[in-house]
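Long-time lurker. I teach an intro course on protein structure, and each term I like to show students one example going from raw sequence to a predicted 3D structure in token notation. This year I'd like something fresh instead of my usual example. Would anyone be willing to generate the tokens for the chain below so I can use it in lecture? Attribution to the forum is fine with me.
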Amino acid sequence: MANFYTDNPDLRHHLSHPLMKKIVALKERDYTDAEKFDYAPVDFDDAMDNYNRVLEIVGEICGETIAPNAESVDHDGPTVADGRVTYAPATQVNLDVCRKAGLMGMAMPRRFGGLNFPITPYIMAADIVSRADTGFENLWGLQDCAETLYEFGSDDQRARFIPRVCAGETMSMDLTEPDAGSDLQSVMLKATEQPDGTWRLNGVKRFITNGDSDIHLVLARSEDGTKDGRGLSMFIYDKRDGGVNVRRIENKMGIKGSPTCELVYKNAKAELCGNRRLGLIKYVMALMNGARLGIAAQSVGVSEIAYREALAYAKDRKQFGKAIIEFPAVAEMLSVMKAKLDASRTLLYETARFVDMYKAYEDIARERSLTADERAEMKFYSRLADALTPLAKGLSSEYCNQNAYDCIQIHGGSGFMKDYACERVYRDARITSIYEGTTQLQVVAAIRHVTTGTYLQLIESYDKQQVIPEAEALKTRLQAMTAAFDKAIKTVLEANDPAYTDFMARRLVEMAGYIVMGYLLILDATRAENPASFLRSANVYVNLGEAEVQKHESFIATVRPDQMANYTYND
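-- Reply from a regular --
Happy to contribute to a lecture. Here you go:
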């Protein structure tokens, strides 16, 4: 039987990170939940055993049901009639299996019917589901919207809506519009307050993933006369109340099992979530950070299946009397694919752990006042999570696109045909660097952590850690890369030109990514039971990163602000 968790020892490695001990203790309130729920863990080992058991169930469902269904889902896709969406038959099977297994609302508290998982094992499940079917992960993964309800909804809203999500009802986040894509402050869907305190929504939303879901989080303009983000609020729309119809499903390149909808709101009843005017400024930003971590997990899952498909084909396909994996050109491609996969996965779970730490403290702060030390630690991890989330989303999505491309290339002409899964994987991968904020927008989010020193401070903390002797030479090279990165930052900042900083932002952010992931790989090798695989990827990745850092440093040293005009177009 195929199991997408047990067949990948790297997942257990990341789940066993030393920081998990503190994360789980915080999440479980020092295991006091065991007094209220008979299935709550009594200690750390019990909790880890629980996570492993659930992830084994996820892995089995993915290997035995979701992955085998992926081709038919891609072929059939969802349909729309009379304003309602019907999933592909196999998608409905997938959802039913996940519901019966209790895999909805995984990160929600037990009192609402959830599993009370930390973000890290939940994101691990998303990684596994995406490997099985990238489009289905969009439907299953939107349960993460419940986190926004939990953080910002009222006690009554939490009690009414979150148990429904945990029981298997689906969610969506209705943000974008025909004239408001990345520029969400231009949202114009109109929200009008009624005398009874409810609201009515009118307008159109576009590109809404799972747009016919049961429970919607909706960004709408609540303040008359406003045109910017300060006039937007967040609302909860319940499909049971009616008033929203699906005008059409987009005919997409990939992730075809996930219905991307255009929605028409006609006097749809809704209720305010949180406070007025904070919809974009606070709530959507929190929602998007969670979504971006989810897309990073999705990207890692795509990289995983792309690598596995390419490796299996290269071992099986024979040309000129031998398997093509024996040709250096193919072997190199595979080694680079594996290095990018391992690098993006180690960054994903480092980010997830940082998110876990600060969110655990935020949750505790709802119950009692934090101590000064706890507040400081929450702020510390919040800053790191804020720095690594755009890095993880941006670079992991680019890597998964590169790996999907190389998977096709290794298959040769066969990869261009629908006979092999890589053709679908290639189409599914493309959206990851676009939705929930393009790679270019991730650079915008990340560059301030370059210029304020967040990445350099994090790198310094990694450099202070001991590594195994086999990784010492790599560490020395990473130190040299860090010096080049620091020099490049100073060169850009000394120009004192915001436009120049924006122009060089991508290069600086990529340099940070190569160094951070290089260090994480050698630290993985240091604590791994079997360091060989991580060392192999670390060597390949540092070689790759070293060349890229040198290239970016040279470009920054050469192209000064007065030369930027050569890179602009006025046609």
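Some talking points for your students: DSSP finds 17 helices and eleven strands in the chain. The mean pLDDT is 96.
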